[in-house]
Amino acid sequence: MIRYLFLFFICTTGFCSYAQLGGSAAYHYINVPVNARVSGMGGKYVSLSDDDIISFMQNPASLNKDMSGRLSVNYMPYLTGVNATTLAYGLQSGENNLYGIGFTFFDYGKLDEAAPDGTITGTFRVNEYAITGGCSHVIGNYTLGMNLKLAGSHLGPYSSYAIMTDLGGFYQHPEKDWTIGMVFKNIGYAFKRYTPGVNVRMPLEVIIGTSYKLENLPFRLTISAHNLQRPDIVYLDPDKKGKVDLMGNEIKEKKKIGDQIFRHFIFGGEFLLSKNFHIRVAYNPQRRKEMRLEERAGVAGMAIGCNLTVKNIGLAYTRSFYHVSGASNHLTLTTSMDRVFKKRELQN
Predict the structure, then answer these.
(1) Which residues of 316-340 are buried (b: 16+ CB within 10 A; e: fewer)?
(2) What distance in Å separates the CA atoms of residue 36 and residue 206, rounded to the nearest whole number?
């Protein structure tokens, strides 16, 4: 399996040249955090591996035996009436081989269809989805993982399909509660394009993260570095007016190396108040910089959530603040299907 993963990585790294941000790539919905825990950690995390099966969709190498039989149902009423749902389930084969399957669906509802002069001629629907299958293999304190994804996008009469892969690695310290994860996400290509002859670029992303549980405090710190395939992720609006100096000259804002570095990081933390109750907070500097208003920022870029587990059912909620005028809510329900089946067998 290691040989296959290595060969697949070599064959697909050529697609890294398609790495883009913003509106220059398609299928960006794949990177939108639907799960409450992902959102509660700032939108991305690749260095956590426990019984949360949804983690494999962030990093396939996070798959572990505790996820076997776990089912996760996620719902997010997103901004402007968009609704998103994600399902994930974990399986185990043998001692060191783990598998995960997932399905994500975004429904944008009905949109008005108009002629060039603005006359409404009807309506059309927009939806996008992705089917994900993942596997991992444990080698001592290290784990290698791979996801294969079939993504579809339907924009009224236009549609596109793509095949992608995530390649991940994971390290678990043998003694301390310290983990490191790395993943190359969304390597692939579109085998059906919206318009023939027009290239569809993939939202490639390279993420590295680390998580550490403090020894004497019920707190786990997670730091993630995202979009490492592109050093400069700062966007400055060329139409934005700059400050005026004493001579009346306009001074345009310039990029700063410190800002370019800082925007790559996301800081998240989990307060492990008990085995069954956790509180999560996160800060995403890039989101805050891009979504804040000039006169005020509010809590843009922040996220706060909690997780409560009662017997066999876990319920998580996160509110993620994108802008001073709005935020998104994330709901996650998890359970162990193995326990459900065992109870039925005992009852019978």
Answers:
(1) bbbbbbbbeeebbebbbebbbeeee
(2) 22
CB 58 within 8 A of CB 183: yes
Pick from 230, 152, 235: nearest CA to 194: 152
pLDDT for residue 117: 83
Q: Which CA distances in Å does 145 have to 8, 76, 100, 329?
A: 12, 27, 11, 30
**Cβ neighbourhood burial of 81 (10 Å; 0-12, 13-18, 19+):** exposed
Q: Which of 302, 6, 317, 330 is nearest to 139 (CA)?
A: 6
Assign a CATH topology to domain 2-233+254-347: Porin (2.40.160)
Give me the residue spans of the domains in the chain.
2-233+254-347
Structure tokens at 127: 């939806």
Q: 100 versus 15: which is more confidently predicted?
A: 100
**Of 190, 183, 143, the residue nearest 164 (C-alpha):** 190
Structural element, H or E, at residue 212: strand 205-213
Express each pLDDT in 281-326 by its tens digit: 999 999 988 888 777 778 889 999 999 999 889 999 999 998 777 7
